From TrEMBL:
Purpose: Involved in peptidoglycan biosynthesis. Transports lipid-linked peptidoglycan precursors from the inner to the outer leaflet of the cytoplasmic membrane.
Localization, UniProt: Cell membrane
Keyword terms of this UniProt record: Cell membrane, Cell shape, Membrane, Peptidoglycan synthesis, Transmembrane, Transmembrane helix
Protein's gene: mviN
Cellular component, GO annotation: plasma membrane
Membrane-spanning intervals of the chain: 12-32, 44-62, 68-87, 99-120, 135-158
Protein name as annotated: Virulence factor MviN-like protein
Alphabetized GO MF terms: lipid-linked peptidoglycan transporter activity
Membrane topology per record: Multi-pass membrane protein
Family the UniProt entry places it in: Belongs to the MurJ/MviN family.
PANTHER family cross-referenced by the UniProt entry: LIPID II FLIPPASE MURJ
Protein's UniProt keywords contain Transmembrane helix: yes
Length: 167
């Protein structure tokens, strides 16, 4: 059982590399939809899907982890193409203010991840816990993550009005 858990964790780590890209796709596509352009995100999605097939072929030597890496790579390409189209149309440009905000959010995410990584029990300990103890630990880790993330953002000077302003 533990070998299966470790094996699954490798693909999750690889897939995690594309998480930001998957989120950006959801955000950037709305820039097209708001302008009544539904064709461009579909065309870009098709390009990303075909690239995913190519990346999958290149990733065959890496087995199931390679498939996760290929998905992350195609999502990054998709997000890049969506952004490039919006920038060319002069709809959105990544500003210095956006870059500073991104760095602050990234630092908060790193602090959150470090705190959770420090406190999370080893996989062998998880396997020995009963259901309710796992739930307890999971809830505690989620609360810890939220507190560390929020506190770090506050320490870095991010306030509610920063989230509500343009660029």
């Amino acid at each position: 059982m533990l070998n299966d858990v470790h094996a699954a964790s490798y693909s999750l780590w690889a897939f995690n590399a594309g998480l930001l890209s998957f989120m950006l796709i959801k955000i950037l596509a709305n820039g097209y939809y708001a302008r009544q352009d539904t064709k461009t995100p579909v065309k870009i999605g098709i390009i990303a899907m075909v690239s995913n097939m190519g990346f999958n072929l290149l990733a065959i030597p890496f087995s199931y982890v390679g498939l996760a890496i290929a998905s992350a790579m195609s999502a990054t390409l998709n997000a890049y193409l969506l952004y490039r189209g919006l920038a060319k149309a002069d709809v959105y440009h990544f500003s210095r203010k956006s870059a500073v905000f991104f760095v602050k959010v990234l630092l908060a995410a790193i602090a959150m991840g470090a705190a959770v990584w420090y406190y999370v029990p080893e996989i062998n300990q998880w396997a020995k816990m009963d259901f309710f103890m796992r739930v307890y630990w999971l809830v505690w880790l989620i609360v810890l993550a939220a507190i560390v993330y929020g506190a770090t953002l506050i320490l870095l000077g991010v306030r509610k009005h920063h989230l509500l302003t343009k660029n």
